[in-house]
Amino acid sequence: MKLFSESKTIGFKDFVCEGGGYLRKVDIAYETYGTLNENRSNAILVCHALSGSAHAAGKLKDGTVGWFSPLIGPGKALDTNRYFVICSNVLGSCFGTTGPSSIDEHGNYYAMNFPVITVTDMVNLEKRLIDELGIKKLVTVIGGSMGGMQALKWAVAYPDNCKSAIPMACPAYSSPKSIAFNKIGRDIIMNDPKWANGDYYGTEGPVEGLALARMVGHITYLSFEAMNKKFGRTVRRGSDIFDLIEGKFEVERYLFHNGFKFTRNFDPNSYLYITRALDLYDIRRNCSSLEDALGRITAKTLLVSFTTDELYLPEETGLIYKTMKELDKDVRYFNIEAESGHDSFLIEYDRFQGLIKGFLENL
Amino acid sequence: MKLFSESKTIGFKDFVCEGGGYLRKVDIAYETYGTLNENRSNAILVCHALSGSAHAAGKLKDGTVGWFSPLIGPGKALDTNRYFVICSNVLGSCFGTTGPSSIDEHGNYYAMNFPVITVTDMVNLEKRLIDELGIKKLVTVIGGSMGGMQALKWAVAYPDNCKSAIPMACPAYSSPKSIAFNKIGRDIIMNDPKWANGDYYGTEGPVEGLALARMVGHITYLSFEAMNKKFGRTVRRGSDIFDLIEGKFEVERYLFHNGFKFTRNFDPNSYLYITRALDLYDIRRNCSSLEDALGRITAKTLLVSFTTDELYLPEETGLIYKTMKELDKDVRYFNIEAESGHDSFLIEYDRFQGLIKGFLENL
After folding, report:
1. Residues B72 and B80 sit within 8 Å (Cβ to Cβ)
2. Pairing status of strand B84-88 against strand A78-79
3. Which of B180, B212, B246 has its CB closest to that of A255?
4. pTM, 2 dp
């Protein structure tokens, strides 16, 4: 059956960023699925990852399927017969919410004049949206990767406003290894002459740079074993591996294809700002310790990691669990056997949808 | 005490590469330490990794210490009182051996006209050097990473010419994940406009591209935990993390510093050719199976891997061991507890020098 999906944008005034930046006006694009009940007590917030959008479920006119579709719909884990599911595009992105490719109050592209943003800023903007919709308390906030960071931050920053939280495939703070990958991605973009210090709007822009940055990211999303299974040392049919320096291993073709595909609709400057937000993510910020930060949580928490995640290791999610458990919080943790590495939360739905459904039904 | 080091170059004619390429003349640069005995039966060949040179031990005039110094010298694991230690620069490199930055017979830089090369080609050139020195049988061939691949290939290709082999931190064939990292490094270089299709000699060249490619490599050399310990989330003194998109995490400074340091003396085209040789490395090539390939080995073999190696996993070295063991070969394997990731073979000498010394004394 066709899922009802409503796409809207709301504008807010005077947004102050954690890093001190100020935005006179911020738009936030969001979609909703299902119906908000009279008490406004059945809302779930879904948070997306680095490259995502508000389009979490249903089909767009161009056929694009929502990025969390298998989980959202009638009878599904996020059951639209019961819940009103909201997904908004994060601050700094390029799918309807204000970001570096938006026009500022002087009629210019923000470009590199956009303020540095953080996951906290994304969450604060989502909070404004939830307030605007008249929702006092969310049933849950759920997301994977950067979406998981937002879910955890919601639980820490707004304990009164979320009954539960489901952070998946995310750490309590970004590791230096993840920062290193992001740094290289940014440097590749900024080293592309077509980046032009960020003022490339109206021109081709740093397409190669963004594609390469995305390729770096892709490596971190797949596990060693997943790559062995998916590609092995397969050489593309008809290629001579000795023929050219460019070579023709299947894994190279895949990276190339996906890297450039990404450039069709993602803004390079958004990539710079959002990866920096990932680097800056540290749930301990403005708290005296990890215990202090997680001690603020009152939401019933379901933590999920994936055994083959090589970007945000299970041990990192495990640390959140261990700390919350010691603080006697209502928390459970599942390190799920999965093959697809970090991307498991976007691929191996079968392995965790029952878990989420059960968790929500027993809130 | 000062180690005697002799630096020489020998030229050979008519070198045919595995991929079909032909070089009319090839120079090979090498250093030796210790004295070749009358029977020429005390020689050890040390093979270097991607960025190495023939300068394995002793000090150059500019103060550069050999990359394997702690292991080579009087009384050390590779005891120059007993052994005649040889290290040569690999084919395709830029430290004296013929590579893309060399001049061809027409007086032009090879640049991208250099033929595609493989680890087998490197080994075949080393074999010519060993023949030229009148050495019939090496005591051992030792190396880590690409050096380990060469050591294993020596044992497979020239069983009559090496009594033993010590491949460290290397697989039987390159994984798609390692190929992916190399591919991105190459693409970054080739996307730098100053690469100019490889014809950048006499100009600045793709300095930024090479630095970025090296940074990608660096991430794979360090382990997740090593990066946590070394950098954590430390921010450089005096920086405001919210200040600039470029940010100032210590790990970023480290990558930047090491990336650019590398460009001072490494040739970008050599980086393209040698990483491609790594991708093409497959000990099974021209053999019917891994068993067939490793079945050709007669050398007593010592395999070493490092627990935290995230580039060439211990399981990969373990597969060589398992296969050789099943073939009833004289092989032993140590997966050494180390913290420094792939680079452990260049850092944590204390953890394996005794092992190597003992292995050689009991040949």
Report:
1. yes
2. unpaired
3. B180
4. 0.95
Beta-carbon-side half-sphere exposure of residue B266 (alpha carbons within 13 Å): 24
Structure tokens at A206: 């740093």
Distance CA A38, CA A41 (A): 8
Q: Is B229 on the interface with A (CB under 8 A)?
A: no
The CA distances from residue A314 to A308, B31, B108, in Å, are 8, 47, 53
* B252–chain A nearest CA distance, Å: 6
* Maximum alpha-carbon separation in chain B: 67
Q: Is A342 a catalytic residue?
A: yes
Q: How many angstroms separate the Cα of A282 from the Cα of each of A119, A233, A314, B327?
A: 9, 38, 17, 51
Show the tokens assigned to B46: 């040390």
Domain B6-174+282-361: give its CATH superfamily.
Alpha/Beta hydrolase fold, catalytic domain (3.40.50.1820)
Domain boundaries, chain B: 6-174+282-361, 178-276
Partners of A255 on chain B (C-beta within 8 Å) are: 180, 183-184
Q: How many CA atoms lie within 13 A of B21 on its CB side?
A: 24
At residue A55's C-alpha, the angle toward residues A50 and A56, to 5°, is: 80
In order of A134, A311, B93, B203, the CA distances from B212 in angstroms are 48, 20, 19, 19
**Which strands make up the sheet holding B300-306, listed edge to edge?**
B6-16, B22-33, B84-88, B43-47, B140-144, B164-168, B300-306, B331-336
CATH of B178-276, one of 3.90.25.10, 2.120.10.80, 1.20.120.450, 1.10.1740.110: 1.10.1740.110
Catalytic-residue membership of A93: no
**What's the ipTM?**
0.93
Q: Which of B315, B225, B343, B282 is nearest to A224 (CA)?
A: B315
Distance separating alpha carbons of residues A207 and A188, to the nearest angstrom: 11
Q: Which amino acid is at B298?
A: T
A16 and B CB contact within 8 Å:
no
What is the spatial distance between Cα B2 and Cα B99, in angstroms, rounded to a whole number? 31
Give the side-chain half-sphere CA count within 13 A for A33. 29
As given in the structure block, the two tokens for residue B252 are 């970023």
β-bridge partners, A140 = A44
Give the CA radius of gyration of chain A.
20
A-facing residues of B in 173-202 (CB < 8 A) are 173-177, 179-181, 183-184, 186-188, 191-193
Q: What is the interface size between A and B, counted as CB pairs within 8 Å? A: 148
Q: What is the largest CA-CA distance in chain A?
A: 67
Scanning B67-96 for CB atoms below 8 A from A yields none
The tens-digit pLDDT sequence of chain A (363 residues) is 345 566 899 999 999 999 999 999 999 999 999 999 999 999 999 999 999 999 999 887 778 899 999 999 999 999 999 999 999 999 999 999 999 999 999 999 999 999 999 999 999 999 999 999 999 999 999 999 999 999 999 999 999 999 999 999 999 999 999 999 999 999 999 999 999 999 999 999 999 999 999 999 999 999 999 999 999 999 887 766 666 566 679 999 999 999 999 999 999 999 999 999 999 999 999 999 999 999 999 999 999 999 999 999 999 999 999 999 999 999 999 999 999 999 999 999 999 999 999 999 999
CB contact (8 A) between residue B249 and residue A179:
yes
Contacts for A15 with CB less than 8 Å, ≥ 6 apart: A22, A23, A25, A26, A91, A121, A124, A125, A128
